[in-house]
Amino acid sequence: MRVVVVGGVAAGLSAASRARRLDASLEITVLEKGRRISYAACGLPYLIEGQVASVDALTVYKPEKFERERNIRIRTGAEVVSLQHPRRELVLANGERVKYDRLVWTSGAREVKPSEYADDPRAFVLHTDADAEKLQGYLRDRNPKTAAVLGGGYIGLEMATALRARGLKVSLYQETTDLLGREDAFLTGALLSHLERCRIETHLNTRAPARLDADLILTATGLKPNVTLAAEAGIELGRTGAIRTTETLETNLHGVYAAGDCAETTHVVSGRPIWLPLGTTANKMGRIAGANVTGRRERFPGIAGTSLVRVGGLAVGLTGFSELQARREGFSPVVARISAPGKARYFWGRQVQVELTADRSSRRLVGGSVLGDEGVAGRVNVIATALTMRMTVDDFAQLDLSYAPPYATAMDPLLIAAQQLLHLLD
Amino acid sequence: MRVVVVGGVAAGLSAASRARRLDASLEITVLEKGRRISYAACGLPYLIEGQVASVDALTVYKPEKFERERNIRIRTGAEVVSLQHPRRELVLANGERVKYDRLVWTSGAREVKPSEYADDPRAFVLHTDADAEKLQGYLRDRNPKTAAVLGGGYIGLEMATALRARGLKVSLYQETTDLLGREDAFLTGALLSHLERCRIETHLNTRAPARLDADLILTATGLKPNVTLAAEAGIELGRTGAIRTTETLETNLHGVYAAGDCAETTHVVSGRPIWLPLGTTANKMGRIAGANVTGRRERFPGIAGTSLVRVGGLAVGLTGFSELQARREGFSPVVARISAPGKARYFWGRQVQVELTADRSSRRLVGGSVLGDEGVAGRVNVIATALTMRMTVDDFAQLDLSYAPPYATAMDPLLIAAQQLLHLLD
Known about the structure:
The structure is a homodimer.
Chain A: E1 2-6, H1 10-22, E2 27-32, H2 44-49, H3 63-70, E3 73-76, E4 80-84, E5 89-92, E6 97-99, E7 102-105, E8 109-111, E9 123-124, H4 129-142, E10 146-150, H5 154-165, E11 169-173, H6 185-197, E12 201-203, E13 216-219, E14 223-225, H7 228-232, E15 256-258, E16 265-266, E17 273-274, H8 279-292, E18 307-311, E19 314-320, H9 323-328, E20 333-341, E21 351-359, E22 365-372, H10 375-388, H11 393-396, H12 413-425
Parallel strand pairs in A: 1-2, 1-7, 2-3, 7-15, 9-13, 10-11, 10-13, 11-12
Antiparallel strand pairs in A: 4-5, 5-6, 8-14, 16-17, 18-19, 19-22, 20-21, 21-22
């Protein structure tokens, strides 16, 4: 049986590898339009910052690894231009036709340069390896002194601090009143004062001026799922604009699965569709799709909406809903906000800020955000686990979390926040 | 109504504070036999290491804070020598009698010097503030060059590395074949090679020689709950030897509650009694007992057996059961053991080792251990949360955990371990 995977970054390679592991007899081909497979796209801002030497240093596996060790055929530079499902056939840009029995569609997402900067040689986006290499070349050859970053999402914030770390004077423009795509005044306020400390001039609720005089313009105004071809082929999209799938990640076309940044999934707190293009989710969805093309029926349960970003040394973790989002989803949110040391005073830990949101009637946790240092990732993961298991604040407040002075406090900031929530719910 | 709290460290002060917060009319007295209240006992090894200047620097609150701000009477140097429940009366060492209506018993645990070292001036224990000050004086005045540490539990390991960090030549003796009280060859093996790197000579399965020629002997061969007085007064003990309570932390004597290191609790994985004297649990139990003396009926759900310790720069976190312990508890354990980077390669994170144990028939997680750096605390907390919610490996493997290159990998070591467990369960 011929399995074809369209896209060779996170979801695609996970799908191909999982399918191979479960069924040695399949003929598996990965079609990747780019030059590289398997590079860690989330590392691109660190390449620009100078922490990573080259895109190749971000490459996890070379095609040979898949070809030799896993017997998966990898074709780079293979751009699909049409999907003809009735004939179980893909058409490539060079006119070639590729037959499949089962298809995994992982066409990803894209960052588009806003039209007013389309021809501006100072303007860049950062989404693919090629984008990063172009930007890296410009930084090296033109040595820009000032930068304007448009967009206050993950890439916008990471790039603003990366360019700042390289010594550029950076201005950040965000059209809405919040940062990181989270309507959350607590979070936005904390980020704003941190950006000020990093000496990044931040303009919220502001369109960038028509005539930007920066030497470099980085536009990061929002990703879109790559779904044009899929839609043309009759693959159904969901409300979010990304591909809709069943729990087993099959699309409305029988035998065609979708995974990763081109597909929507379910939010475990609300049970509603969500599109949040992140590598972790792409890997997990890819593995499930890869299992299911072999005849399994594994289900992807959805996501809690967890994300983590470093903004100039500050770790920011989010999961579930903010107060405003929770209200819009039909919950009656109650919110605790605390600041507490993340480890014993004599280990000089940074203060940790925790926001924890619960639903008044069910007492279930519905979201949280954590700001601080290394301990943030683990803390936001504990909240994400609690959200997934529909945990109440009452149970959460009694969690047996670890304590040792170099790493934590006897009363973890998460538990302090939970205690405050209990008082508010009393 | 008179509420008397016996013991003024973790559980006792939590109980008194919570009771006061819920009922302003109570007359609340804390009787502490020691000189200080509210010092962070878990910080004592760091005092010996030199990270902390004095016991006073470990003191969280001074008695005045409780007296003035919370209207709680604090009596230090007040040793209870008898509890006469029929008369609702405590007798102090000075003969004084103290009446109560409700009693919270938080008599803690103790570390006893083995009898062969009872009179040896080189031999110390480290459990209380007074122990630490004696040891600190000896280190300062006698400048010992060699140390023998007896016991491979938390205090033993922390003290071995603390003394090593001060430049002493350290030998560690442990009578059983495992370390940290966890029958777990994986963990013990990892710790042994780490102790070797720290140049601590470790002897497992070995009684210390009768004539130890070390300049300093630290005995940490095991804690015992302080229950003599309680037992004399008719308070029932459990199988673990610590005080048995109901879910609301009441003892068999009506109106007498027990909390903290003197009391046993329930293991959330097995549902069986467990005695694990740790400050975090003491704080939580104290708060519940403090609420319940005011007439509430809050329940303490038990613990997952989570603990965390730093051993010479290595973070070690444990929760739930090891394979051997799980088998003894009636589970059919299946174990995954993996080693993976804790963050992106270009952020130079240490490898993280994860052991994850599940029950074959129910597919529930029953335990885990994690070794590495700062990320260990959060990872063991995620496992503890999963144990508390009786999560299956299937659900755990799909958790939406956070990812950002400076702090984590796209596929968290926890999820890699869960994937391995899924293969083993397949």
